[in-house]
């Protein structure tokens, strides 16, 4: 007993310390808890000290406590499973879930057939193959939810879609695992007939037990709190459900999960919240860390050799490659942009808790041997640990913040205007072509807004109350009048327009602050604007630099086509906006890829061809540090730009634009 109590102290202390360290490193605590178990086991302590503290006599009571924690945890997972996640995203979520399940499952089965002779034999081959497929296809729904919550991504479309897909994957993975457990456990006559009770039991839970549990809600409302009697009733039902599925040779985790899934939802928010508060304190703080540490104790990396490293490399290739490629390909078939598709694939590659639970079941049922169990635990750690850093690389925090802001506006029922900001130099009266260009570009989306920014330096010398000040104020009033005239140009093209004009001590230094504060979607500025380099560097949005605003081609968009030097989606998109808005032909220059893009745009109904830029064309080029001869507009892409889906872009431009009378 004294060693058992000492083991509890060591395990809980190590779990808290390593879990906290993992959290500080941006990793889920489960990663640290499993590492703690590995370090406490034979991998680091060796057989002498390891067997003394965590020997064969100590593991059964530790495993029993860990299993109680697993029962509570699976109940919490079932209770927190939001059945509304798939609604509204059904087709996309199911498609991604199938892609994220089928490919890694098939690759896992193929790998299992290849290594089956080394790890299992005879009657265990079929459950082993199916088990490896299920283990490769799993996604850790709870860890995924935690990663999304930590970054605030549960409030954006990508987060909701990943949770919905993970919920479907969970159902598929648990179903396959139930079949595996049934096959592996049906070794005698008794086991064979009990397994067939699993489906009727699930029906009884949903059709009979669920309505009975709904009666807990009125009892809770009458009491005004979660009484000991109500909590004991829930715990009794939970443990009974876990016992029934274990008795049927279907693992007890399914009974615990199923009981959580049939708990009442409608009108039971406060009841479920209090149940979670009570159980999570016990399960998450005490028993669940025990489970993961005990899982780590079963890992012995000392027995691995070079052949094991080859097997580990194959496992990682199948697990990561199958999950990422399957998820990405499925998302792209549903026209999800490439960046979001890779981010979704990265999220669904998270395995963590769910994977460890599955592996523990496989070890207990004799489907996995200790060597393969150790390798699969390492795979679970790697795939969980890589999610956070890789996700930040693919989908940076600033992109998440932008999506959250859009989601909040959508929740309020407001649509943000597509804002084009124009830096208007002196004299404003001569900047009609510049504003006309900006107003045309604003028609890429609806509603749109054109903001004219004009900063005027304070007059030199000492200002005195008298004619001098009156003269400056008069000049400012004239400037405002000229800017309002320009604003009418934008309004005539269907965009809202406003003017920002004031004195500035240092125009070049203050303009970047004004641009950043305005948070535009597109910045239009002349190449000779004060502090052009600082403005260009400070802007995170798309930037259009006007090189020759005085030329007729820019003033009236020419009588000929719009030409674009292909090499940037942003530059081509700006040229497309100008061509469609002014009903001009589009010429794409730049070789084979340019010809392919021109043909694609032509199939979408755009008057697009490829070849050299004709004389009199408005020439648009990517802003990549060089200025090709004859270029009028340089376009730099916004930060974290997604590749343009040209079919969607053309349809959106046609929907957003309204007919405008030609000058």
UniProtKB/TrEMBL annotation:
- Keyword Ion transport tagged: yes
Membrane topology listed for this record:
Multi-pass membrane protein
Q: Which GO terms describe its biological process?
A: proton transmembrane transport
Q: Report the domain of life of the source organism.
A: Bacteria
Q: Could you list the residue ranges that cross the membrane?
A: 62-81, 93-116, 128-148, 160-183, 195-214, 226-244, 250-267, 279-297, 309-330, 373-391
Q: Keyword Transport, does the record have it?
A: yes
Annotated signal sequence range? none
Keywords assigned:
Ion transport, Membrane, Transmembrane, Transmembrane helix, Transport
**Gene Ontology CC annotations of this record:** membrane
GO MF, one example: antiporter activity
Q: Where is the Cation/H+ exchanger transmembrane domain?
A: 16-392
Where does this polypeptide localize? Membrane
Report the principal subcellular site: membrane
Entry-linked InterPro entries: Cation/H_exchanger_TM, CPA2_transporter, Na+/solute_symporter_sf
List the Pfam families: Na_H_Exchanger
Q: How is this protein named in the record?
A: Cation/H+ exchanger transmembrane domain-containing protein
Species, as recorded:
Planobispora longispora
The lineage is: Bacteria, Bacillati, Actinomycetota, Actinomycetes, Streptosporangiales
């Amino acid at each position: 007993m004294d060693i058992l109590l000492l083991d509890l102290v060591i395990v809980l202390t190590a779990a808290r310390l390593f879990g906290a360290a993992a959290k500080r490193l941006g990793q889920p605590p489960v990663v640290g808890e499993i590492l703690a178990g590995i370090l406490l086991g034979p991998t680091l302590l060796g057989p002498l000290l390891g067997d003394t503290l965590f020997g064969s006599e100590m593991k059964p009571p530790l495993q029993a406590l860990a299993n109680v924690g697993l029962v509570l945890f699976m109940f919490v997972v079932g209770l927190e499973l939001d059945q509304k996640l798939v609604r509204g995203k059904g087709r996309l979520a199911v498609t991604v879930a199938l892609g994220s399940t089928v490919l890694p499952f098939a690759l896992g089965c193929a790998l299992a057939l290849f290594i089956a002779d080394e790890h299992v034999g005879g009657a265990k081959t079929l459950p082993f193959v199916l088990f490896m497929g299920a283990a490769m296809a799993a996604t850790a729904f709870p860890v995924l939810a935690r990663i999304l919550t930590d970054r605030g991504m549960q409030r954006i479309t990508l987060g909701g879609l990943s949770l919905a897909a993970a919920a479907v994957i969970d159902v598929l993975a648990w179903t396959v695992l139930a079949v595996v457990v049934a096959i592996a456990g049906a070794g005698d006559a008794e086991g064979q007939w009990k397994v067939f009770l699993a489906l009727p039991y699930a029906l009884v839970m949903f059709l009979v037990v669920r309505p009975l549990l709904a009666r807990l809600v009125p009892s809770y409302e009458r009491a005004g709190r979660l009484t000991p009697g109500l909590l004991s009733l829930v715990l009794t039902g939970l443990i009974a459900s876990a016992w029934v599925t274990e008795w049927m040779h279907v693992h007890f985790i399914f009974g615990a999960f199923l009981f959580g899934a049939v708990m009442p939802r409608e009108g039971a928010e406060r009841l479920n919240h209090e149940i979670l508060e009570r159980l999570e304190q016990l399960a998450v703080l005490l028993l669940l860390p025990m489970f993961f540490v005990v899982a780590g104790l079963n890992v012995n990396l000392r027995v691995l050799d070079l052949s094991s490293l080859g097997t580990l490399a194959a496992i990682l290739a199948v697990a990561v490659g199958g999950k990422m490629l399957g998820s990405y390909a499925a998302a792209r078939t549903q026209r999800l942009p490439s960046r979001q598709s890779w981010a979704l694939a990265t999220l669904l590659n998270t395995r963590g808790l769910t994977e460890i639970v599955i592996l523990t079941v496989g070890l207990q049922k004799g489907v996995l041997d200790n060597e393969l169990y150790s390798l699969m635990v390492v795979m679970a750690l790697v795939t969980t640990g890589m999610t956070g850093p890789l996700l930040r690389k693919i989908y940076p925090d600033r992109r998440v913040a932008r999506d959250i802001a859009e989601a909040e506006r959508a929740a309020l029922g407001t649509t943000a205007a597509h804002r084009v900001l124009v830096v208007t130099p002196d004299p404003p009266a001569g900047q009609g072509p510049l504003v006309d260009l900006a107003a045309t570009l604003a028609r890429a989306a609806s509603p749109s807004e054109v903001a004219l920014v004009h900063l005027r330096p304070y007059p030199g010398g000492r200002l005195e109350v008298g004619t001098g000040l009156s003269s400056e104020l008069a000049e400012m009033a004239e400037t405002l009048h000229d800017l309002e005239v320009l604003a009418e140009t934008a309004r005539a093209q269907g965009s809202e327009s406003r003017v920002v004009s004031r004195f500035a001590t240092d125009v070049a230094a203050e303009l970047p602050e004004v641009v950043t504060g305005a948070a535009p979607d597109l910045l239009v500025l002349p190449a000779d604007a004060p502090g052009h380099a600082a403005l260009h560097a400070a802007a995170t949005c798309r930037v259009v630099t006007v090189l020759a605003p005085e030329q007729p081609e820019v003033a009236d968009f020419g009588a000929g086509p719009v030409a674009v030097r292909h090499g940037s989606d942003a530059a081509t998109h700006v040229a497309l906006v100008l061509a469609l808005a002014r009903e001009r032909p589009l010429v794409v220059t730049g070789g084979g890829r340019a010809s392919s893009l021109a043909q694609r745009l032509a199939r979408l109904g755009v008057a697009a061809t490829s070849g050299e830029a004709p004389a009199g064309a408005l020439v648009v080029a990517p802003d990549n540090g060089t200025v090709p001869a004859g270029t009028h507009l340089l376009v730099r892409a916004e930060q974290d730009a997604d590749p343009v889906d040209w079919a969607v872009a053309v349809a959106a431009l046609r929907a957003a634009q309204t007919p405008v009378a030609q000058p």
